[in-house]
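just leaving the lab so this will be short. below you get a single protein, a line of residues and a line of whole numbers that encode the local backbone shape. id like you to explain what the token line says about the fold, in plain words if possible. thanks a lot i owe you, the record is right below:

…
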Amino acid sequence: MVAPDRSTEVLSAGQLRPLIFRIVALPVMAMLVVCGLLVWQVGLLTAQNGWVTHTNAVIVAATQAQKLLLDQETGLRGFLLTGEAPVLQPYRDGQAQTDETLARVAALVDDNKPQQARVTTLAELYAAWSARARAVVAVGPAVAAWQRPADDALRADLHARKADMDRMRALLREFLDEEDALLQQRMTRATATARAIAWGGAAGLLLLGVAMALLLRRWVARLEGTYGRALAQQAESEAAERRAREAAEALAAEISAESRELEARFKQMRDDHQLALAQRAPEV
């Protein structure tokens, strides 16, 4: 069965208005769809980049905590070697900032349970190390007596602090290695997402453009068919009107000619009658 040619279909006024509305509304709807896709793509890219930024912030905070621990250890060792209070300044500065920095790191990784566990262990180790360090600082310069072989208690305390510091360093290394791996994964995911969005968006726009072009072509063809038939009907109407006018003019000319002929005959008859009356007058 052959499908009817809809391009020559004549649409009524009730069919024409919705068709014109669809032709006008389709580009607007396509533009809204494109805007929605762009908003979704921007949101997705922003989320991916946000995770990358978040991981960088975690690494920065953890590195700051690592630096503070090293500064405290350095200051405490200098104090133990020299017995001079000024060398404790890095230790005191670290004491003032480490708890806050560890709390910030813990808040940043509250969505990552393994990292959260490492930070919790790190905070506990730091609390133990800090308590021993404060006890050493409270004793004052006399603590340098740990160097005497007979002072086993001070030597044991030193080894305990070193063990805690080594464990904290190891935990921080594990923590930073994990965050570095997460950073690489998230950067790779963000790059892949950007690439997929670019190619997928281009393909989607192409398909949308083709579909819109086909629909518009179909609808415009129907509208063109209706408009063409209307023009043909108008031309036929004008031709019929022209023929009717020409026929009317011909008929008027014929009537006018016959009227002149009748008028001439009537005039001839009147002249003949007057002539006849003139001829009969002398006989009377």
Q: What stands out?
A: The helical segments are 13-82, 89-108, 113-139, 152-280. The two ends are 99 Å apart (CA to CA). DSSP finds four helices and no strands in the chain.
